[in-house]
Amino acid sequence: MPYPTTGDFVTNPTYSGSFIPTLWSSKLNAKFYKATVFGEIANTDWEGEIKNMGDKVTINNVPDLTISNYTVGGTLSYQVPTPSTITLNIDKGKSFAFKVSDVLAYQSDIKLIDTFSDDAASKMKVAIDSTVVYNTFSKAAAANKGATAGVNSGGIDLGTDAAPVTLTASNVLDVILRLAAVLDEQNAPESDRWLLLDPLTRQLLMQSNLAQAQYTGDASSPVRNGKIGGIDRFTVYVTNNLPRAAAAFDFKSGDGSEGGVTAVAGAPARRVLVAGHKSAITFASQMTKMETLPNQNDFGSLVRGLNVYGYEVVKPDTLTFAVVK
User: Fold this and answer.
1) Rounded distance, CA 324 to CA 270, Å?
2) 313 and 281 in contact (C-beta within 8 Å)?
3) Alpha-carbon gap, residue 224 to 133, rounded angstroms
4) Is residue 222 situated within a structural domain?
């Protein structure tokens, strides 16, 4: 018990630690990245020194060089590389604020920092993951989506709003292989590929041939060990934060906070499966404010925090998605 509920009020309990904003800020940021899907699938190469909402990070793209045939004694043609940049805007934020009725009692139990940071990280995970995936998945290259996907073949059906692919236990692996083939045609690296699935699609996978260990190369069946693991070079993540659409509305974010207002006549209920390479999306997040203030109306403190973040699709060629029902 951190402080007595009866008897004399204890004003100076023994500390096991103290509430230090910077300590909690670093704990919360680390736990957020550990929990969030985008802490795993997106790169943070240009995170830089984020200090406030409104910061900008300039990303320099490597220009494409032309490869020419060489003839002995021939004249070389020198290319002038054209540089280009992408701006990563840190223009979004999530905050929380709460009261601590007795700050000394709070300070006496440092474990509460872990408890509160776990909860805050979990809540921010849902809010930020849903926002990021909703605003990035459709920015895949034109050749990486639709009923005629494939930059070379144009023959890979990944579904459309009007005609989503109907998923079953017998074809769910095939759809995943289609996503892999689209990335293959774009020469996406085979390492660091990822795949986002919703729980219903995971259920179909568990009813498919994936249940047999030899199809995954694992020592045991995913049904037995509870893990999907890797499928055809993809590291698979199951999340509730993928965009979805009811029969009469456009896609909305996984937590329902964005979209879902544009009518789509005759469109069936549908959802998306998103795949890509870690180079496709850059993501930056930082706890920039972690403060305690005196509570002017009570004994204790007010605690508040601000997490600022930004994201950008920097390589649309290594991003793809399937529209399914």
Assistant:
1) 6
2) yes
3) 30
4) yes
Give pLDDT, residue 195. 93
Hey, CA dihedral for 163, 169, 170, 174, is it positive or negative? positive
3-class secondary-structure state, position 313? strand
Which pairing describes strands 234-238 and 230-231: parallel, antiparallel, or unpaired? antiparallel
Structure tokens that stand for 12 in this block = 């100076």
Position 55: which residue type? D
Give tens-digit pLDDT for 237-291.
888 889 988 887 788 887 777 887 777 777 788 999 999 999 999 888 777 777 7
Query: Residue 15 above 50 pLDDT?
Result: no
- Evaluate whether 290 touches 25 at the Cβ level (below 8 Å): yes
Same domain, 126 and 28: yes
Does residue 309 contact residue 283 with C-beta atoms inside 8 Å? yes
* Strand ranges for the chain from DSSP E: 56-61, 84-89, 92-100, 193-197, 230-231, 234-238, 244-245, 270-277, 281-294, 301-313, 319-324
The length of the chain in residues reads: 325
Question: What does DSSP say about strands 234-238 and 193-197: parallel, antiparallel, or unpaired?
Answer: parallel
Q: How confident is residue 21, by pLDDT bands cut at 50, 70 and 90?
A: low
Beta bridge partners of 282: 43, 312
Predicted local distance difference test score (pLDDT) of residue 287: 75
Find the DSSP H helices in 192-271: 199-206, 213-216, 222-225
| Residue 243, domain member (yes or no) | yes
| CA 287 to chain CA mean position, Å | 17
Rounded Cα–Cα distance for residues 239 and 245 (Å): 16
Residues 180 and 161 in one domain: yes
Q: What's the token pair of residue 131?
A: 């926002």
- Residues 205, 273, single domain; the answer is yes
Residues 6 or more apart in contact with residue 69 via CB below 8 angstroms: none
